[in-house]
Amino acid sequence: ALPLVLDHVTLRIEKxxxxxxxxxxxxxxxxxASPIDLRGEVTAASLLDxxxxxxxxxxxxxxxxxxxxxxxxxxxxxxxxGKGAVRLWLDFAQGQVVEMVADVQLxxxxxxxxxxxxxxxxxxxxxxxxxKHGAEARELGARGLSIRTRVGQATGPTDLTLAVTVGxxxx
Length: 171
Fold this sequence. Notes:
Strand order of the largest sheet: 1-2-3-4-5-6-7-8-9
Order of helices and strands: EEEEEEEEE
Structural class: mainly beta
Distance between the termini: 36 Å
Helix content: under 10%
């Protein structure tokens, strides 16, 4: 992958009693995104062992073309197209993502959620999406979710939650 180049970069890093805070603002090429605002707070982190780290990241991009980001962000590799605004909160602990919340307002979305599933093509996707991974349960949800297909079928703002309890064997 080509390197991601950011212009007009501002980086702030602060340390307070074992807690690290950072903020990064930078401007990528205009055809792939508006300025990026990335912030984070990390505790119990050692530069030698990030598996003990716990924290939260926040990302705001008022305009993004998701397809070019496939080269830099592995989970995006199924996103063929999609343009719009994204705000993302990501909580992590012990080397794993434990919760993600994303406010999205996207158009021209084309993706495949899993290899065995057909391609999903949407004219518009808007709302708050949430995923949570706990020791005893998994949760997937949406709030104010609106979807419009390329052929004009639409759902109004919808709230939904799918919660799955994990058994003693982890399944």
